[in-house]
Design a protein that fits this description.
The protein is an alpha+beta fold. The protein has helices at residues 2-12, 21-44, 52-64, 100-104, 109-117, 132-138, 156-159, 183-187; strands at 69-72, 77-82, 85-90, 95-96.
Length: 215
């Protein structure tokens, strides 16, 4: 998960990486400010108990549970039949054999059947992190804009400090903009074109020798 987030941010900052360090950091601050404002606005305009994304996931799970049947074993333990296969659901521990209930922290389709049979509210079995008021608090932190450089109040000892160049020399050639591929990616075969007539590679339909000839 951290790797995926870093890749997404790097893709959004491709053009900004060509700027000097100060301008680059300013572009990063602006980007996160826009994202933060957009998410906060979306959360404040949500009138459901859960956020928009998680409400859609909950609705999808409800639709998937329409043809399932439930057999109670105890007050909290139930058996759900889904297409001939049985799943055990424990509402006390919020667990299901399928694993989605405890991983997503949302009622899975099997837990939905149990909730409907007991006339319980599904939002009570969702993580608090998915609720609208929690999402609003997440993006409540403001990102203040920086003043102009002319208005900066720089201490004297900082202004007089001499910044030395780095100890390491820059390698020759242009700096890399693409990441180094792993060995598994390098060993993968490239896409090969195949003939539309016989399906074999190495030639096309114009040079195919397996094409039926007209008598």
């Amino acid at each position: 998960m951290p790797s995926n987030i870093a890749e997404s941010i790097n893709a959004a900052l491709v053009s900004a990486r060509e700027l000097p360090i100060y301008d680059f950091l300013e572009e990063v601050r602006k980007m996160f400010g826009r994202w933060n404002c957009s998410k906060r606005k979306e959360a404040t305009q949500t009138y459901t108990t859960l956020g928009k994304k998680y409400q859609e996931m909950l609705t999808l799970n409800e639709a998937m549970s329409t043809r399932m049947t439930v057999v109670p074993s105890t007050e909290y333990l139930h058996t759900v039949n889904d297409g001939g296969r049985n799943y055990t659901v424990c509402m006390l521990e919020r667990k299901c054999v399928c694993g989605r209930f405890q991983v997503d922290e949302l009622p899975c389709p099997h837990a939905w059947v149990v909730l409907k049979s007991k006339f319980l509210m599904p939002e009570e079995y969702c993580s608090n992190y998915y609720k609208s008021n929690t999402i609003v608090m997440t993006y409540d932190l403001l990102m203040y804009p920086l003043p102009s450089r002319n208005d900066w109040n720089i201490p004297e000892h900082v202004a007089e400090e001499v910044v030395l160049p780095p100890k390491w020399k820059r390698p020759p050639g242009r700096p890399k903009k693409k990441r180094d591929k792993t060995l598994s990616e390098l060993l993968q075969l490239k896409n090969q074109h195949s003939c539309s007539i016989c399906g074999q590679g190495g030639h096309n339909n114009g040079t195919c020798r397996n094409a039926p000839r007209n008598k």
